[in-house]
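Sample 3 of the quickstart, ligand iron/sulfur cluster:
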Amino acid sequence: MSNDRSLVPGLVKGMATTARQMMRPPHTAEYPDVAPELPARSRGVIALVESNCTSCMLCARECPDWCIHIDSHKEEVPPASEAGRARQRNVLDRFDIDFSLCMYCGICIEVCPFDALFWSPQFEYAETDIRDLLHDKARLGQWAADVPAPPELDQGAAEAPEVAAANKPARKGRR
Ligand code: SF4
Ligand code: SF4
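Result:
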């Protein structure tokens, strides 16, 4: 009998906890019916802005998983005027990232000196065949549409040097 009485407070406490939980909204994520609200800068997939890439290979060399594959060839750019000289530039033939190996560390994005790689929050690219996780430059380029715009500068902050350089008026040619 005394044992039954000592059970009552615990039982009441348990019922109170159950009642409290029933009043709370459920935490169930109803994905894929309801898209999750992810932070804008989530590491979903890597986007490539091909026009910025100079095939310098820095990202491929720094990638700890060796999952970036780049091929390029050199092309001659004719001089702008008769007095000028022809230049050589790299043309990107292949830029693949194997997302079955990638560990989403972001090193490639950090080291790219030419702002050619960005995080996109898009994560819906699961595949049934692991080989399809190799994204080529066309596919990596498509992710660029989902890359969020950079945050506004703080009030009074100096303009980024590359933006200031791009906005500088062109120098007039010598007479
Ligand atoms: S995020 Fe890391 S592992 Fe993935 S491609 Fe970039 S450097 Fe390699
Ligand atoms: S993405 Fe950046 S680091 Fe990688 S090859 Fe292109 S320019 Fe170089």
